[in-house]
Amino acid sequence: MPIYEQSYRRREARGPLRQMRAWPITREALRLLFARRLFLLLMASTWAPLIGWSLYVYFTAQSPDIRRVVPLDAKVFAEFMYWQAWLALFPTLLGGSGMIAGDLRTGAILIYLSRPLTRVDYVMGKLGALLALTLGVTLLPGLLLYGIALGLAPDVLLQWSMARIGPAIVIDAVVVSLVFSLLALALSSLSRSARVAGMAFFGVVVALSPVAALLKALTDSPLVSLLSLWEDLATVGQALFGLPTDPMRPAWPYPALVLLATLLASLAVLRSRVRAVEVVR
Length: 281
Hints:
Elements: H1 23-34, H2 37-45, H3 48-62, H4 64-69, H5 74-96, H6 101-106, H7 108-114, H8 119-137, H9 139-152, H10 154-157, H11 165-189, H12 194-219, H13 229-240, H14 253-273
Helix pairs in contact: 1-8, 3-9, 5-8, 5-9, 5-11, 5-12, 8-9, 8-11, 9-11, 11-12, 11-13, 11-14, 13-14
């Protein structure tokens, strides 16, 4: 009786789940985060500014005389998105710093990747959880404020000059969320300590800003501000809303290239660090 050689065959997920293998990772990560009452309160507090900005829009929309003093224009929504980006830092810091570092510390990443999952599935699952958090702080409040403004002052916002506000809110929120989420995951994959990864994320996004400002003052070169991711995000955000760029900052294509390089570098780090075999030196 002939014996046929059988090579290793990868176990595949069931048919209906084959295109959704990242979803259980996203769902479990969100469940663990929202099980913490402090984190739930933090996420709720990020929506508090929407109340104040909605009142601003309400009173501004009531009278043309008020709009002459405090206009309802793209600058209002650009500033709102700027502050929501600040608030998005905190859930990203608390939720993203340990998202991969915890799996590296406990060895759970080896269990994940021993299942019918690829590295892409694993990263997409973790990324989906962080994107849900950051878009919930930036995109959803931004669109809600825009909807409130449309309902209260359609004569102002339903003009061709204001048509870019809606797309600008979406693109700005997506850019901020992608940069924060991928960077947080990449830094989390470089350490087994969530605390170390969180400090690294805070340092790269926030602490580099005063360093860049000091170097810009010493060298008098606007290009030095490219070292600050926060300044890069702010410059790109202003360009999306059609606002004039600060003359002391480089034109928006340069910060956009820095943000793109940050995304690609984060993906490269994740590709090298997320693996099913742990190398011990």
